[in-house]
Amino acid sequence: MTNHHVYERLVRVTSSENVLVNEPLKNHTYTRLGGEADYFVTPTTYKQVQEIVKLANHENIKFTLLGNGSNLIVKDGGIRGIVMNLNKLTTIETNGTTVVAQSGARIIDVSREALSDKLTGLEFACGIPGSVGGALYMNAGAYGGEIKDVLESTIVVDPQGNLLTLTADELDLEYRSSNIPDKGYIVLEATFSLKEGNYEEIKAVMDDLTFKRESKQPLEYPSCGSVFKRPPGYFAGKLIQDSGLQGQQIGGAQVSLKHAGFIVNKDEATAQEYIDLIKHVQATVHDKFGVRLEREVRIIGDDLNR
User: Fold this and answer.
1) Whole-prediction pTM value?
2) Which residue is catalytic, options 9, 112, 176, 295?
3) Active-site residue 176, yes or no?
4) Are residues 112 and 73 in the same domain?
5) What confidence tens digit (pLDDT) does each residue in 43-54 have?
6) Beta strands in 98-220 (DSSP E)
7) Does residue 58 fall inside a structural domain?
8) Are residues 45 and 129 in the same domain?
């Protein structure tokens, strides 16, 4: 449900080209799933982010931050209120051995920038599809590295619209988690502390990781990446494979034949089909092995029959 007064105020904060009404969120998620957002707003400055948060508070309107949608399922009923996306905040700058990146930049691009400046430490991120903000949100990691290893500080907006600078320690970074969701922070930029390295060596590591990713992951179909966290002592993909679930399909959603830890949108799936398949996988693995698979992917939004 949209309200002309709220639309006018959002346009005043940013501009009409940065405020879309009833925008289909499947246009903004890696799974290509999701209903409409009442207002889809793409601010271009930190001040605009603060103003939009304050506006949502003042109007008592629901507010949701959407990253680049790589580790996310938006339900078929979409999201009410204001959905803010920071994909216009993408600046990456290097200063000595420090790289400062805005939250809408892709963490892959930050790792490439580090490579071009002969800086080592972010090689692990060369295959992570998320944004910088999303990478901090879940302390993203791969191939033995994680954000926690290289993050120095961050600038965030709190739920009241205040700008805060925090050290990495203040984010309680742990395996695939941080306090960002609990505190309601919106990440605006991150400062990474890297080390000088050898261009050819850094590139060789990144090429190797890219090859591993492309050969093992089902990048030919839309997906949210790795669906489940790694259960202690096991690998989620192997448990799913050993449960005979590979290739299993509900509607257009399928457990990937290439990597069982992925669920792909093979054929115009709905979000509900995707979610039903996740639950089916969890139930089957629990029945067979007594292991509870915990979701790594976030599910947000309303059901269709709201």
Assistant:
1) 0.91
2) 176
3) yes
4) no
5) 999 999 999 999
6) 98-102, 119-120, 141-142, 145-146, 151-157, 163-167, 186-193, 195-196
7) yes
8) no
